[in-house]
Amino acid sequence: MLSQLEWHDVDTPLIICFWLTSIVVAKIIFHQSKIGHFIPESSVLITFGLFAGFMLEYFFGWDISLHPDLFFLYLLPPIALEAGYCLPFRMFFKNIGTILLYAVVGTCLNILFISGILYLFSPYYQNSIPYIDLLLFSTLISAVDPVAVLSVFEEIHVNQILYINVFGESLLNDAVVIVLYHSLAHMATIEKIESEHVQEAVGSFLTVATGGVIIGLLFVFFTAFATKFSVKIEVVQPLICLLLPYCCYLACESVHMSGIIGIVTCGLMMKPYLDGNLSEKTKTTTKVFMKTMSNTCEAIVFLFLGLSIFSKSHIWDFIFASVTVSACVLVRFVVVIPLTFLANRRRVKKIALVDQAIIAYGGLRGAICYGLVQTLDQDVILSKDMMITTTVVVIVFTVFIQGSTIAPLVKLLRVKTEEEKPQLISTHVLNGFSDDVMAGIEAVIGKRGGNYYRRRLSAFNHDILEPNLMIRPTSRGARLVEKVCEMNAEESRKMLLETFEV
Amino acid sequence: MLSQLEWHDVDTPLIICFWLTSIVVAKIIFHQSKIGHFIPESSVLITFGLFAGFMLEYFFGWDISLHPDLFFLYLLPPIALEAGYCLPFRMFFKNIGTILLYAVVGTCLNILFISGILYLFSPYYQNSIPYIDLLLFSTLISAVDPVAVLSVFEEIHVNQILYINVFGESLLNDAVVIVLYHSLAHMATIEKIESEHVQEAVGSFLTVATGGVIIGLLFVFFTAFATKFSVKIEVVQPLICLLLPYCCYLACESVHMSGIIGIVTCGLMMKPYLDGNLSEKTKTTTKVFMKTMSNTCEAIVFLFLGLSIFSKSHIWDFIFASVTVSACVLVRFVVVIPLTFLANRRRVKKIALVDQAIIAYGGLRGAICYGLVQTLDQDVILSKDMMITTTVVVIVFTVFIQGSTIAPLVKLLRVKTEEEKPQLISTHVLNGFSDDVMAGIEAVIGKRGGNYYRRRLSAFNHDILEPNLMIRPTSRGARLVEKVCEMNAEESRKMLLETFEV
User: Fold this and answer.
1) ipTM of the complex
2) A-contacting residues of B 136-195, CB under 8 Å?
3) Is B3 at the interface with chain A, CB within 8 A?
4) Where are the domains of chain B?
5) Within 10 A of A373 (CB to CB), how many other CB atoms are there?
6) pLDDT single digits (tens) A174-206
7) How many whole angstroms separate alpha carbon A437 and alpha carbon A441?
8) Spatial distance between the Cα atoms of B424 and B428, rounded to a whole number of angstroms
9) Would you tell me which CATH number, out of the four given (1.20.1530.20, 3.90.1150.10, 1.25.40.10, 3.60.110.10), belongs to the domain A21-30+33-412?
10) pLDDT tens digit string along A19-55?
C-alpha cells in the first residue's frame, strides 16, 4: 500500500537477481568444497541447473530454454570481448599461422568429417535427415568453447605454446563456426542446391569475416580516440571500453557482417592503445570487470543448459547421439595430427606429440554450440528438437568426462608445464633485439619475410597511429626505463612488506 | 540475408548504445572545452537532451518521458549505492547528529514552508489545486540531488565539515523525501483526511525507514559473508558487491520498506568489511565501476530531463512556477540558519555563517525530483502535467543558475577550502588515541556519552562481527603497521620514478 512499486513491477529484476545469486552461491560452494580439484566449474553449474530445472518442471510445469536473442545479443558479446582483450598479444601474433591453420582449415575439416560420419550412419536414425541439415548440425557441434577450454587449461598450467594454440584456436574457431553456420542456415532454406550456391556461401563467408575485421579495426580507432580525450574524466573510461566494442558488435550485426569477429578484433587490437591511455585504476577496473561479466554470462549459459535438460520437448535418438559423440572426439584427433605435421614444418619451436594429443582432447563444447542449436529454424530443420538433445549430450559428455580427465592426462603424458619465471628486464630487451636481428638478416639476404612486414607495421604504428591515438606514445627505450622503474618499485615494496612481516 | 539477427532484434540494444555513446561524446566535448570552468556538467547534458528532444519532436513527433519503473528500478539504485559506498565513513558518523537534523527536521520544515507559500498564492493559479496536492508537490520538490550537489562541491574543494554536511544531508534527504512522498501519495487518494490518517502516515514513515535500515544491515551480513568465502574466486567478487545491494533494494521494495534507505545503509556499512575481504584489484574495480555506473545513470536522467522539455504535454503556469522557484530558494535559507544555530550549540567545531549560506545555496534539485514527479498518478493529481513543467523549471534554474554561481560565491565569501594535507601516520595514531581519551574521561566522570557507545559498538564489531565476516580481522596495531608499510612503499616508488624522470 505504501509503495508505488508493486510486486508485479519488481518481478523481472527480482528473477534475474535470483538466478545470479544462485550462480554466485553455487560457485562459492564449488570452490569451498574439494570437488574443484576433480571436475571443472562448468559441470557444477550444469548440475545445479539440472536440479533447478527438474524442480521447476515438476512443480510448476515450466519449460525453460535459452532464447537465441538473449544469447546472441547479450551473453555472447561480453564473452567474446573478454576473450579478445585478454589474449596474450605478442604470443598470439607469433603463433598466428598455426592458430589460423587449426581454426580455419581444421574447423572446416572437422565439419566435413563429422557430417560424413553422420551421413554414413543415417539409415539407422529414427527419421531421415537431409545432408544439408547434417552439415549444419556438424558445423554448430564443431564450435569449441573458449571459456570451457580456458577454465580447464588455466588450472593445469600447460606450457605457453600449447596454451596459446588451444586458446587461440577455440577463439577463432567460434568465429568461423558462427559465420559458416549462418551461410549454411541460409542454404538450408533453398530447395535445390547448385554449385553457384556453394560459391556464394564461400564468397559470403569471406565477405562477412573481412567485414567484421574492418569494422572491428574502425572501432579500435573510436575507442582509442575516446579514451585519449577522456583522460580528465576517468569515470567514463570503463564505460567507453565496454560500450564501444559492444557498439562494434551491434554495428557488424546490423550490416550483416560477423559481430563476433568484429568484437574479438576490437578487443584484441584496442588493448595496446588503452594501455597507454587508461590510468592504473581504470585499467584494472576494465580488465577485472570484463572478466566478471564474461564469467557471469558463461555461467548463465551453463545454467540454462542444465535447466533445459529436463525439458519436455527432448527427442532421444540413441544412435544419432552416440555417433555424434564418438565422431566429435575422434575427428579432432584425425584432423589435429596431420595439421600439426604441416605446421611443424614451418615452426622453429615444434609442437610435440603429447601436446597434439592435448590439443585434440581439449576440444570441449559449450555455450556456443548450445546457443547456435537453439537458433535453428524449426520449420526448416525438422529434427531440431532431436539435435538440441544431442547437443546437450555432447556438451555434457565433453565437459564432464573430458573436462575432468584432462588434468590427470596432462600428468600421465608428462606434458611440459609452465614454470613460473622471474620477471627479468633482459627478456624485454632481448625480445626487441631478436626481432631487429631477424629483420636485419632478412634485409641482408634480400628476403621479405614475416619479420620484414612485422617491422614495417610496427613502424607505421609507432610513427602514425600511436601519436594520434595515445596520450603518451613512448619510444622502446622509454618503455624499458618505465618497466625497470616499475619492477624496482614493486620489488622494494615487497621487501619492505616482508621486513615488517605483514 | 546472411545473418539471422535482423534489424528488428538489434533495435533495443542499438538505441541504448546510441544514447550512451551520445552521453560519452557530450561529456568528452564538455571536458575538452573551457566551459567546464563556468557551468556544471549536468547542465550540458540537459542542454544536449533539449536539442535532441527538439529534433525528435520536430522531425518524428516523438514525445519522450522517463518511465517511473525505469527510474526507480534501474537508475536510482546504482546512484544510491555509490553514494552510500563512497560516503566518508568516519566523518559521517562524527557529524551524524547535524546531518540528521538537516535531513529529517530540515526537510520536513522545507516541505511545510514551501507548501504554505504555495497555498498562500493559490488564488492566482490557473486551476485550483487542493492543499494535499500542493503538499505532495512540495515534498518531491524538496529532494536535494546528491549527485548534482557532489559534482559541484567536488570541483570547488570546500572544507571537509561543510562537504560532509552538504553531502550527507542531500543523501538522507532523498530517503526522507521518497518515504514521505509515498505516504502522502497514499493519503492523496483518500477523500476526507482525518487525524488518524496523519498518525498513520507518521507511523508508516517510521516503519518504512526502520525496515529499510534493518534489511540493509541484513544484506551487509550477506555481502560480507559472500565476499569472505569467495576469496579464491576473485572474478565473482565485483558481481557480489553490486548484485547483493541491488537485491537488498528489491527485497525492501517488495516488502514495502524503503529501498533507498536499505541500499544506502547496505553500501555504507558493508564497506569496512569489504575492505578486509577484497583484494586490491577487486576493491579498485568495485569502487571505480560503481562510480561509472552511478555517473552514467545520473547522466541518463539529465538527458531524459532535457528530452522532455519539448514535450507537447507541458502546461505552463507562470505564477505557480515563479512562486515555486522563489520558495525553494528562500525556504532553504530560512530553515538552515535556525537549525545550524541549534546544531552549533552541541558542536565542538562550529559551522560558520558563510558555510551556512553555502549549505542553503547548494540545494540543487535534480534526478530525484524529476523521477518522483513522473510517478504522480494523473487520475488523483489532476495538475500533474503542470507540476512536471514546474519541476523541470526548478531543476533547470537550480542546476544552471545556482550550479554555475556557487563556485564564484565560495570565492567571494572566502569560504574555508580544504588544503591538501600530507598523509601522516601520526594522524591515524591520534585519531584512535583521541577516541580512547574521550571515552576514558567520560568513564572517569561517570557519564555515558556518544564516545562510550561508540567504543562499545566498536568492541562488539571487533570481537564478534569481524572474526565472522572478514578473512583477516586485524588489531588496531597491525592495521597501523600495514598502513606504515604501504605509505613507505608508495613513497619509495614515487622517489624511484622521479629519479628516472618517468
Assistant:
1) 0.83
2) 182-183, 185-186
3) yes
4) 21-30+33-412, 425-499
5) 27
6) 878 887 888 788 777 777 767 777 787 778 778
7) 6
8) 7
9) 1.20.1530.20
10) 899 999 988 888 888 776 677 788 888 888 888 888 8
